[in-house]
């Protein structure tokens, strides 16, 4: 069987060692003769897992003690609604920075719950190259209850690598597609949220990191499942949580620590991205349409600028074990998602295929 590399944008590939451990423990977790999926989330063993997973996540991401960590459901879209329901206060409005599809979707959802201002912070030049044009909002940010942005747009492959300057305002970040890919200063943020299905674990669980002083301000009509204070007070278990997804996240955290922490992860990700972008830079057959300063380390988009060739590329790549390279329907072309779990061998195999395909179809 051909070696398969999964370049899916999400649900994405997970570390092989994590899946192997889950496979080994599937029928007999903690020597209980049962699966982790079958034990009570309020029982001793799962409560110990929940506590340890928070400690490991706090260690690997260097999360200060004045931040709470929630393991929730509903994905990033759920947080599109939960954030304004919990954070809109006396100022009565929020600022949304639009860098692409997902930040735009977050702004659209927030309008159902509060007044917002939205600023497009990207532009496309005459050659179709997309760049982020502004990251300093210190002159206007403090008139808002919070400022929201998406650190990495998975569809276009635009990443905002410089944390926006919002002065003393509350900064909220959707980090669904680049969380745990690099070291960051958590204290720069009031709230961070991320769907798990890129770097954290499987789809079905969502992590929220929220500063303590922002908890307890939810509007009265906020459903309890979206109320951060309620979730904090119930250990993220106001209802039955997605226990298997939580378990897999706990294995990922331990795996990252074992692999050297985020310093080592960041270096590996930089090497993988540099290999692929360097190849694209030197290719006359493929094009990447993102300015170099904003090229995502997680999602690399490219195209032959020919729809028929793009479709042929995806079909032949799939046959060679390079899966899920079709670009998002909004953009087209191809997209290689090279999250933490993608080994460098996968990127090397992709480049070898790209070079062969280019020579055969030039």
- In spatial order, strands of the major sheet run 2-12-11-10-7-3-4
Number of beta strands: 15
Structural class: alpha/beta
Q: How much helix, percentage-wise, in residues?
A: 25-40%
Give the number of helices. Answer: 9
Rounded average pLDDT:
96
Judging from the principal axes of the Cα atoms, what is the shape? globular
Known CATH architecture of the largest domain? 3-Layer(aba) Sandwich
Q: SSE order in H/E notation?
A: EHHEHEHEEEEEEEEEHHHEHEEH
Question: What number of domains?
Answer: 2
CATH homologous group name of the largest domain: Type I PLP-dependent aspartate aminotransferase-like (Major domain)
Q: Whole-Å distance between the termini?
A: 29 Å
Based on CA atoms alone, the radius of gyration comes out at 21 Å
Give me the CATH fold name of the largest domain. Aspartate Aminotransferase, domain 2
What is the name of the CATH class of the largest domain? Alpha Beta
Uncertain segments are: none
Beta content comes to 15-25%
Largest β sheet strand count, sense and barrel closure: 7 strands, mixed
InterPro entries: Aminotrans_V_dom (IPR000192), Aminotrans_V_PyrdxlP_BS (IPR020578), Pser_aminoTfrase (IPR022278), PyrdxlP-dep_Trfase (IPR015424), PyrdxlP-dep_Trfase_major (IPR015421), PyrdxlP-dep_Trfase_small (IPR015422)
Protein name: Phosphoserine aminotransferase
Pfam family, one: Aminotran_5
Catalytic activity: 4-(phosphooxy)-L-threonine + 2-oxoglutarate = (R)-3-hydroxy-2-oxo-4-phosphooxybutanoate + L-glutamate; O-phospho-L-serine + 2-oxoglutarate = 3-phosphooxypyruvate + L-glutamate
């Amino acid at each position: 069987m051909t070696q398969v590399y999964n370049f899916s944008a999400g649900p994405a590939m997970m570390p092989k060692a994590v899946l192997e451990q889950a496979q080994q423990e599937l029928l007999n977790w903690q020597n209980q003769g049962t699966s982790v999926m079958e034990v009570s989330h309020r029982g001793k063993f799962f409560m110990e897992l929940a506590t340890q997973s928070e400690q490991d996540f706090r260690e690997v991401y260097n999360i200060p003690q004045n931040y709470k960590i929630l393991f929730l459901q509903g994905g990033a879209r759920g947080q599109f609604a939960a954030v304004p329901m919990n954070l809109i206060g006396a100022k009565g409005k929020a600022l949304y920075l639009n860098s692409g599809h997902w930040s735009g979707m977050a702004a659209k959802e927030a309008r159902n719950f509060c007044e917002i201002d939205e600023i497009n912070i990207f532009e496309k030049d005459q050659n179709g190259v997309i760049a982020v044009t502004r990251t300093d909002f210190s002159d206007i940010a403090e008139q808002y209850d919070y400022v929201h942005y998406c650190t990495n747009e998975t569809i276009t492959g635009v990443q905002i690598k410089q944390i926006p300057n919002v002065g003393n305002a509350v900064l909220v970040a959707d980090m669904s597609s680049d969380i745990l890919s690099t070291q960051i200063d958590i204290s720069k943020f009031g709230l961070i949220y991320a769907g798990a299905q890129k770097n954290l674990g499987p789809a079905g669980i969502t992590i929220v990191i929220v500063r303590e002083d922002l908890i307890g301000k939810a509007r009265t009509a906020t459903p309890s499942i979206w109320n951060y204070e309620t979730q904090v007070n119930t250990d993220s278990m106001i209802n039955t949580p997605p226990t298997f997804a939580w378990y897999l996240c706990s294995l990922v955290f331990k795996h990252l620590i074992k692999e050297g922490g985020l310093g080592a992860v960041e270096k590996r990700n930089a090497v993988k991205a540099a290999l692929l972008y360097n190849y694209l830079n030197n290719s006359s057959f493929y094009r990447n349409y993102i300015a170099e300063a904003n090229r995502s380390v997680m999602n690399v988009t490219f195209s032959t600028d020919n729809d028929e060739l793009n479709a042929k590329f995806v079909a032949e790549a799939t046959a060679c074990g390079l899966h899920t390279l079709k670009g998002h329907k909004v953009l087209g072309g191809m997209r290689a998602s090279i999250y933490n779990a993608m080994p460098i061998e996968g990127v090397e195999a992709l480049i070898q295929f790209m070079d062969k395909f280019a020579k055969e179809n030039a």
